[in-house]
Amino acid sequence: MSNARKRIAALRELMIKAGLDAYHVPSTDPHQSEYVPACWQRRQWLSGFSGSAGDVVVTRSTAGLWTDGRYFLQAADELRGSGIKLFKQGMRGVPTLAAYLGSTLQRGQTLGVDPQLLSRAVETELSAALEPAGARLKLVEGNLVDRLWTDRPPPSKAPVEILPAELAGERVRAKLRRLRDAMAERRAAAHVLTTLDAIAWLFNIRSADVEYNPVVIAYAIVTEDAARVFCDLEKVTPAVRRALAPVELLPYEATGAELARLARGKGVVWVDGRGVNVWVLKKLKGCALLTDPSPIHAMKARKNPTEIAGMRAAHVRDGRAMVRFLAWLDEAVPGGGVTELGAAARLAALRAEGERYRGESFETIAAYGAHGAIIHYGPTEATDVPLRPEGIFLIDAGGQYLDGTTDITRTVLLGPQATAEQRDRFTRVLKGHIAVARCRFPAGTAGRQLDTLARASLWEAGLNYNHGTGHGVGFYLNVHEGPQAISPTRCTGVPLEEGNILSNEPGYYQEGDYGIRLENLVLVVEDREASTEESPWLRFETITLCPIDTRLVEVELLTAEERTWLDTYHAGVREALAGGLSAKELGWLQRATAPL
Amino acid sequence: MSNARKRIAALRELMIKAGLDAYHVPSTDPHQSEYVPACWQRRQWLSGFSGSAGDVVVTRSTAGLWTDGRYFLQAADELRGSGIKLFKQGMRGVPTLAAYLGSTLQRGQTLGVDPQLLSRAVETELSAALEPAGARLKLVEGNLVDRLWTDRPPPSKAPVEILPAELAGERVRAKLRRLRDAMAERRAAAHVLTTLDAIAWLFNIRSADVEYNPVVIAYAIVTEDAARVFCDLEKVTPAVRRALAPVELLPYEATGAELARLARGKGVVWVDGRGVNVWVLKKLKGCALLTDPSPIHAMKARKNPTEIAGMRAAHVRDGRAMVRFLAWLDEAVPGGGVTELGAAARLAALRAEGERYRGESFETIAAYGAHGAIIHYGPTEATDVPLRPEGIFLIDAGGQYLDGTTDITRTVLLGPQATAEQRDRFTRVLKGHIAVARCRFPAGTAGRQLDTLARASLWEAGLNYNHGTGHGVGFYLNVHEGPQAISPTRCTGVPLEEGNILSNEPGYYQEGDYGIRLENLVLVVEDREASTEESPWLRFETITLCPIDTRLVEVELLTAEERTWLDTYHAGVREALAGGLSAKELGWLQRATAPL
């Protein structure tokens, strides 16, 4: 019997004891994190599915996993033998998790949920689905999975570090002043922070509590005259404590009592309704609650001049590492012995040679041939394959630097020639990438309005890709951050703002054959040419510096403007990166960035 | 003192008596209608503002109107001297109505609202804004404005008519069967219908209770074994009552009691959370409520083959009226004596010569020169101007036919030559129109994803238009219907489906100078070329038939594909319309549709 089968059977016994007919094991943690610390990766432990997104529901007789297009192939693979049915979110005829429960549970039955892992939105959705069925949600304190998971990893003891103001660009007291101004405008007496990157940004602190994301597991509460961070105090040295003063540091476990104290007060408490869990809301019960989005997200998303300068500088170092890597790849692959894992390790090692490097910003996707079509493929010992001098190799990787976060995808030709189809598809993806990179748009435009620009050339040929075009990127923080995004499905509709940084990454995936993705980060800047006094316009400036493989480009498919964009981009890459390279690498860069 | 000032002063007296610090006078009616019957046009009576959208709030010392970009100029004009401040929705720094109240009302103060005119969404938004201020919402039964409006028009007594099945394409019992299937799937025992076009569609009834919209003022309730329509029974002849049986007809005033009866039952009651007012929800209090969107909207939006054939046939008649009109315009304008109102009347008269014509589908926009830049300009005796043989004329008009609804905009040159700027702008609008008309997209795509295709060419030049690109259109029903739309701001994200009909109407407006808009209706059809078994693709088929003025086209700005589209469209128009025209009109049509 597979691990997952045994664990689910054991979970069912706990469910029966607790009088539950179904139990919800979401992917997230108490802070609604996308990437969760090892000690909270309950869904992965239970199901065996290792993707970053996917919720499990176990009933007395069934078990299901809901995940999105990035993970359909991986999930099908990892769930084999588990008895867990895969529900492909967004596909025709596939019920949502809530709809499934609504049609499966009977009158009087209960769905158990851990209030710390339940967002208000999911609570509303589940309740709405269960109510017509006569079933109900039951908040069960203490996670059932934890009772089974005897070798659960301990929580991180990584030290909390201060990000100095010369890197962060703004002191904590200045950030607190802006936050308190926003609170005053909404008449809020307290602001409860629950998402980890918001807390790291506000207090200029970083740690290593979550893989790839340099955040601190914490809650925080800001009032007019106090700012309190609740975290594992063993992680805080006296020097850090002194540096943070007058911000107070309290134990993570003290959060509940402090929330209850706030709830007994008279003032309005502001907590972001999207980032908060139901456990926090229950503690706050009784107070006047404001649940609009926290102003911190937008503040954090508008990078300040120091952050922007840091991001640019980090991208020069990152671009040099990428150039060294690609030059090495061209030379090494024909000799044999290079595998996906080897290539990923080589790139990480080259990045590590750069200054201020702190590690990867997410798990590297190094995908050769058919693996490229698995959108979030990460090579393992079991799947690793050698790279041969033929076909297409896709690498999507990023670095965390003290002065920035990078995320880049390049798709390169390993053999002498690509097929006509591959060239056509690569060029359509490139046209989409350029359409986003070149576009100007009126202030007030939401990122989701730009998504189709990246798809139009593929759509013309009846082709598409099953993921968004871009996500926000943090400053030495999470590689995925909101609210900014270029995506059709995220419905926030938040306008893009000057200083936002996003990825621009259209792709195309031919299942069983190859994958193409082309990703640069872009910075939102004012478009001075189009702006007028009453109507400001914006555009993107591409900050990622690395050649795009012109051997895969079907030049005839490009318009004159698109050709100019690519040549100009390459000239800029050459100029920015030339300085720190060996003669051999420089020769490669010059060839790779030669005009079309 | 202006009428509005006097009326607001009188309203304040009633507010004081009722202990209210502010009162909300929205644009809508108990059915959340966009266009409301004359007897419910309270906001217009109070404020003098005659646009179709705009809410008023009166406090003890201030009064404000919130409206959208379509009406900024008109509202500024009509509010002059009223003492009502104009709040331009969506403009930088302009608070929403809710935010304004949140920052204006003090602790303990109350905002009065008519529960029949309050949607759940607005209630939530207002409550959320008032709570931090310590102010609150008070539901006041009986509208305060009605007590002042002594010469209020009586409700419509227009007869209820049956739309025969050979025109509707589906019998009421078949529609009810589909609805009951959808109810069973969601375990709903009853479905409460509150929006007028949904009721008209479900029961194949039409009337003239609202100008331009052939709906019946009614509520309806469908259960497993009964279907009840609540309307003014004086409007129903015995023949109609017999034709509708077994559907029961009950007085409009009986709705409340029937809702209360439902609330006492055990079954789940389904009422569309977006279309329902708070009065209905209060009556339903206590029952298990399902508030997902009514399945009727999507059913109604997917036109059946008979409806599609009817829409096509109506567009042939409508297109001939348009061709006659445009040919007449070319000849008549140089002779003098044609005004905006005269042109609008001429078009209506030409439409009325066609079979099955029932009237206009909205107030005609006939806008010459600078009037064209007022997006929803409707000429009045006071604003009417003569058309001279120079510059640009914009006409946006539509017809109601027993077998369809039309909505078309053409922008035509009245003089010998347009300016280079006008030709550039017209051509960019045309490029956007063609981009939507030609695009293919995977099933699952929401209309809002296509909006930017229509803007891209304008954006390139730093230009834009301040309205959506397309709205759904009903079948001999409201010219605006949901859920389908091509708009960046409507966040429903409902995918477009085969059989949906929408407008495709990009524009450009040069304030004080001219306006350009180009509108055809499009039908969503399967794209057989791109569809595969597991992944269906869709495209649009343009159903509006009328030449586009090539005198305004800068041919060099068009790509080869765009030129082919326009020539092919014109060839189709010529072929479809040639039959019913005079020799002179035919000559005009041939010239107007000659290849570029």
Explain the overall architecture.
2 copies of one chain form a homodimer. By secondary structure, chain A is α+β, with helices and mostly antiparallel strands. Chain A contains 19 helices and 28 strands. In chain A, a hairpin with a 3-residue loop joins strand 25 and strand 26. In chain A, helix 14 (305-335) crosses helix 15 and helix 16 runs antiparallel to helix 17 (451-460). The radius of gyration of chain A is 25 Å and the shape is globular. Chains A and B meet through strand 14, strand 21 and helix 17 of A and strand 14, strand 21 and helix 17 of B.
Helix content of chain A: 25-40%
Query: Which percent range describes the beta-strand content of chain A?
Result: 15-25%
| Main sheet record of chain A | 6 strands, mixed
Tally the beta strands of chain A.
28
| Termini Cα gap of chain A | 58 Å
- Regions of chain A with pLDDT < 50 over 5+ consecutive residues? none
Rg over CA atoms of chain A: 25 Å
Please report the two chains with the greatest interface, counting residues with C-beta closer than 8 angstroms to the partner's C-beta.
A-B, 46 and 46 residues
Shape category of chain A: globular
Calculate the mean pLDDT score of chain A and round it: 96
Multimerization status: homodimer
Number of helices of chain A: 19
Q: Which structural class fits the helix and strand makeup of chain A?
A: alpha+beta
Strand order of the largest sheet of chain A: 4-3-2-1-5-6
SSE layout and pairing:
Two copies of one chain form a homodimer.
Chain A: H1 3-17, E1 22-25, H2 42-47, E2 55-59, E3 63-67, H3 72-78, E4 85-88, H4 97-104, E5 110-113, H5 120-130, E6 136-139, H6 144-148, E7 161-162, H7 165-168, H8 172-185, E8 188-193, H9 196-202, E9 205-206, E10 218-223, E11 227-231, H10 238-244, E12 248-251, H11 255-264, E13 268-271, H12 278-283, E14 289-290, H13 295-301, H14 305-335, H15 340-352, E15 357-360, E16 365-368, E17 392-397, E18 399-401, E19 404-405, E20 408-413, H16 420-438, E21 440-442, H17 451-460, E22 470-472, E23 481-486, E24 501-504, E25 507-510, E26 514-517, E27 520-526, E28 537-542, H18 560-577, H19 583-592
Parallel strand pairs in A: 1-5, 3-4, 5-6, 8-13, 11-12, 13-14
Antiparallel strand pairs in A: 1-2, 2-3, 7-9, 8-10, 10-11, 15-18, 16-17, 17-20, 18-19, 21-28, 22-23, 24-27, 25-26, 27-28
